[in-house]
Amino acid sequence: MPPDLRSAMRNFATGVCVATTYTDREDGRHHDAVTVNSLTSVSLDPPLVSLCLRVDSRFLTDLLETKKWAVSILDGGADDVARVFAKDRATRATAIDTLRASPGHHTGALVLDAPSWLECVLWDSFDIGDHAMVVGEVVAAGAQRRRPPLIFLHGRYHALEDTRLGVPAADSRGDSRTRSTEPGDRTGPPSVRDSPTAC
């Protein structure tokens, strides 16, 4: 029996981001955005980050063609944004028109009104199993003080309640204090589990 990687990784908390890219066609520029939790800092010199996307993702196809992308790190109030951009391409195409975002000055990819954002140009890409890793050189970045970050843990979105020390506050039992954006003890909507970078 193969190891149950999905269940094991549910105990690993990640940040939540929206990655954006576009494709230029005869009728103009078409933007796309997807929810990702695979953002990784790879190198500071040169400044490199990576994302992992399913090899059958049309977002990946556009990114590899354009060679430009951006990623915006979401705060705890943006769980609705995370959910909609974890859905199918047609749903995302409709939602992107209502997104609070503007094209980045260095890449043209959409940058959201978010705590942090990065604009990247493609450095390299690698097919790894059923995913592809794309490595981007960061050509612009920004940050602003906003609400605590949105995290993904146990199949649900949560917002950290206290980031004064850079970690969640602990209660008398030593438990990390987080606020779930899902009521009850559900495992999150299928659209989240089936997003382009879901494990």
Strand content: 35-45%
Total of domains: 1
Average pLDDT figure: 83
Q: CATH superfamily assignment?
A: Electron Transport, Fmn-binding Protein, Chain A
Shape by Cα distribution: globular
The fold-level CATH name is Pnp Oxidase, Chain A
What strand line-up does the widest sheet have?
3-2-6-9-10-5-4
Distance between the termini: 18 Å
Task: List unreliable stretches of 5+ residues.
Answer: 163-199
Could you name the CATH class?
Mainly Beta
What does the radius of gyration come to? Answer: 17 Å
User: Would you report the number of β strands?
Assistant: 13
* Second CATH tier, the architecture: Roll
Strand count, sense and barrel status of the largest sheet are: 7 strands, antiparallel
Question: Concise description?
Answer:
With about 200 residues, the protein is of the alpha+beta class. The chain has helices at about 5-10, 60-65, 80-85, 90-95, 190-195; strands spanning about 15, 15-25, 30-35, 40-45, 45-55, 70-75, 100-105, 110, 115-130, 130-145, 150-155, 155-160, 180. It has a seven-stranded antiparallel sheet. Strands 1-11-12-13 form a four-stranded antiparallel sheet, with no helix packed on it. A two-stranded antiparallel ribbon has the order 7-8.
Features:
199 residues, alpha+beta, Pnp Oxidase, Chain A, seven-stranded antiparallel beta sheet, four-stranded antiparallel beta sheet, 13 strands, disordered C terminus
Structural notes for this entry:
The strands form three sheets. A seven-stranded antiparallel beta sheet has the order 3-2-6-9-10-5-4. Strands 1-11-12-13 form a four-stranded antiparallel beta sheet, with no helix packed on it. Strands 7-8 form a two-stranded antiparallel sheet. By secondary structure, it is of the alpha+beta class. The chain starts with a helix and ends in a 6-residue tail after the last helix. The radius of gyration is 17 Å and the shape is globular. The chain has one domain: Electron Transport, Fmn-binding Protein, Chain A (Pnp Oxidase, Chain A), CATH 2.30.110.10. 16% of the residues lie in helices and 42% in strands. The longest helix has 9 residues, at 58-66.
